[in-house]
Design brief:
The complex is a heterodimer of chains A (513) and B (159). With 513 residues, chain A is α/β, with parallel strands linked by helices. Chain A is built from 21 helices and 16 strands. Chain A starts with a strand and ends in a 10-residue tail after the last helix. In chain B, strands 2-3-1-4-5 form a five-stranded mixed beta sheet, with helices on one face. The relative contact order of chain B is 0.12. The chains are: A alpha/beta (513), B alpha+beta (159).
Chain lengths: 513, 159
């Protein structure tokens, strides 16, 4: 009998040697004449245990990790194919406490299935949401999304159902469903993990969106830094076509939906929706002035849905299990779950999907186990390079859009970057301005010029030149950028600066070179 | 302006002609040119503009807007070191300084022997395994200076 061994093909796992481990297992199995099939699954998201391999046994899936090529012969000697005990044994994967406490809805199949297999996807509940949607009126599908309380997971947290309804209400004609897969925020990787580990859930979500609003064409705008996700998506789209879940007759319904991946080219600004549309049209990714909203006049001037990867990949679960079931998770106006990403200087980093409402402290200490360096946590940046720095005194804040806004922070795409006490917050503030200067599309002055002046002012403060006056100038500059910029890049790049000034003022003083 | 060898000029012409019917084709065309030639030569701009019925300024504007498009021939291996916050929290600054010393070049430069180009990159989505480096499209995590030396000495860059 052939034993199934799972070795992640996820880019993060590969970055730690999973490719070499997979090869070593196949070679060792051949040498020992053991019947082994290596499946390249996605990552479970416990990156502190990657490469984490699993063996399917009569007792379920058993995990070992982190595995290096040097461990492979020993694993065979310990009879791991039968679940034998080894120093790297982690027991049943589902029972690993870090994973067990999670509430995986959107990520329910990531790390479990073979992402290239439609059959495996369907076996694990895939395409039930689409089947349901095909039996519903378009308005009822949109209503289900509204009722679920799903808000845009890319960062803006706009109610998804309202966006869809606007597109649905436009006169019939060519409409588009676009997926914003330009996951550029440092500290975030949930989109990447999902596209690599369960790309069909995104494809299904986009297909349902197309059925709901009357669109026959979808585009996924994928960032150039994600070549592994590009391959995963193209493979999955071809498989879905082959199985007739895409194309001229979606699941035998007579409805058409086609999907294409477009590769970005390294511009952070293209995560802003109108800039992404410009880029999809083959132009410079400069932001558009709104109105008109993309839902009215979007891609090629047509009504267009623009949603993030996790948003769209949550849609199948909502249709399959019902809007109320999804809305039963969460707190306040933040309904459902959020795949939170623990990143940077953290001992147990990775992806934690939980209902909204748990605190930063639970995430940083219960899941994260504190810093990787073993020093105290001094600050965390939540929500990417435009997110505020949060000091330890505010770690009891809940992961909830409104609760974070209440302390002047933002949840964004759910990334949390951890810094230990060696961090220099004035340097981080300088970086925020520098990043904005590098990535500004140049269309509006507060962002284009303000960010460069911001770097210069911080340099003067650090050089000890007229410190107090320059700190006041920096505060005024931040205010100008927030009030005067055309989009979120210039409008929010001051947030990390302002929060660093507010919570870590002691770092803003002149220092010896 | 540099001129292109006739063979490369023909490649650019063919790519642009093949893709011009697609919706919003310019980025697709530039990606295909870079995949074929390793960069987007300045002399490709007028050819692309002509085929797609755009102005040279429009094509030049797009090539220069996006960090991913190179305007000079890259080294045999492109090494990108992540500069973003998560990697900074795990020592990306020191790793970057090490990479500069080891390769003897700064960002956006190519070594004299043509082996390496060094580039900054802003997030590789490997933020739980920082610091991260990408070499020729392959991703590496938790990269120490020692590991970096191994990667550029053999392993990653040998193929």
């Amino acid at each position: 009998m052939t034993t199934l061994v799972y070795v992640p093909g996820d880019a993060g796992a590969l970055s730690l040697g999973a490719g070499e481990v997979a090869r070593a297992i196949a070679e060792e199995a051949a040498r020992r004449r053991a019947a082994v099939k290596v499946v390249r699954n996605g990552s479970r998201g416990a990156y502190w245990l990657e490469p984490l391999i699993e063996v399917l046994t009569p007792r379920g899936r058993l995990a070992y990790g982190p595995v290096t090529t040097g461990d492979v012969a020993g694993l065979f000697n310990a009879d791991f194919l039968d679940g034998g005990s080894h120093a790297l044994s982690l027991g049943a994967t589902e029972a690993i406490p870090w994973l067990k406490g999670q509430q995986r809805l959107t990520f329910e199949r990531v790390g479990i299935i073979d992402p290239t297999s439609v059959a495996d996807y369907v076996k694990h509940g895939g395409y039930q949401g689409l089947t349901r949607a095909l039996s519903m009126e378009p308005a009822a599908i949109v209503q289900a999304i509204t009722t679920s309380g799903l808000r845009g997971r890319g960062g803006a947290a706009f109610p998804t159902g309202i966006k869809w309804k606007t597109v649905l209400d436009q006169p019939a004609g060519q409409k588009y469903v676009t997926c914003n897969a330009d996951e550029g925020d440092s500290g975030t990787f949930s989109d990447r993990m999902l596209m690599e580990g369960d790309p069909l859930s995104l494809i299904e979500g986009m297909t349902i969106a197309g059925i709901a609003v009357g669109s026959t064409q979808g585009y996924i705008y994928l960032r150039a830094e994600y070549p592994h996700a590009l391959r995963a998506l193209r493979t999955a789209i071809a498989a879905a076509h082959q199985a007739r879940y895409l194309g001229s007759d979606v699941a035998g319904s007579g409805r058409r939906f086609d999907l294409e991946v477009r590769f970005g080219a390294g511009a952070y600004i293209c995560g802003e929706e109108t800039s992404m549309l410009e880029s999809l049209e083959g132009r410079r990714g400069e932001v558009r002035v709104r109105p008109p909203l993309p839902a009215v006049k979007g891609l090629f001037g047509q009504p267009t849905i623009v949603n993030n990867v996790v948003t769209l990949a949550s849609v199948p679960w909502i249709l399959q299990h019902g809007a109320e079931a999804y809305a039963s998770f969460g707190m306040g106006k933040s309904r459902g779950t959020l795949p939170i990403q623990l990143a940077g200087n953290i001992r147990r980093g990775g992806l934690v999907e939980r209902a909204f409402g748990l605190t930063l402290r639970e995430l940083l200490y219960d899941y994260g186990g504190g810093t990787a360096t073993g020093k105290p946590i001094r600050a965390v940046q939540v929500g990417g390079p435009l997110g505020a720095y949060i000091p330890a005194s505010q770690f009891d804040t809940a992961v909830d859009y409104e609760a974070l806004a209440g302390i002047g922070a933002m949840l964004g795409h759910g990334g949390i970057v951890v810094f230990d006490d060696s961090v220099d917050m004035a340097r981080m503030a300088r970086y925020a301005m520098e990043f904005c200067a590098i990535e500004s599309c140049g269309k509006c002055t507060p962002c284009r010029i303000g960010s460069t002046r911001g770097v210069e002012v911080i340099d003067r403060i650090l050089a000890g030149v007229d410190g107090e006056r320059n700190v006041r100038l920096l505060e005024e500059l931040c205010e100008t950028m927030v009030q005067g910029s055309l989009c979120g890049l210039g409008g929010m790049a001051p947030f990390p600066v302002q929060s660093a000034l507010k919570h870590f003022r002691e770092d803003f003083r002149g220092r010896a070179k | 302006m540099e001129t292109l060898p006739p063979a490369e000029s023909a490649v650019v012409q063919r790519i642009a002609s093949d893709l011009k019917g697609r919706p919003g084709p310019l980025l697709e065309v530039l990606h295909a040119i870079q995949a074929a030639l390793g960069y987007v030569p300045g002399a490709a701009v007028p050819i692309v503009a002509e085929v797609l019925n755009l102005s040279r300024a429009e094509v030049h504007g797009v090539v220069t807007f996006y960090h991913y498009f190179r305007r000079s021939r890259p080294g045999a291996h492109t090494v990108s070191v992540c500069q973003a916050e998560a990697c900074q929290s795990m020592g990306a600054e020191a790793l970057t300084a090490h990479a500069r010393r080891r390769l003897g070049i700064d960002f956006h430069q190519t070594s004299a022997d043509g082996r390496f180009s060094l580039e900054p990159i802003y997030c590789l989505g490997n933020c739980a395994c920082s610091p991260a480096v990408m070499i020729d499209g392959r991703l590496y995590g938790r990269v120490t200076p020692e590991r970096f030396d191994e990667l550029v000495a053999g392993g990653a860059a040998s193929s």
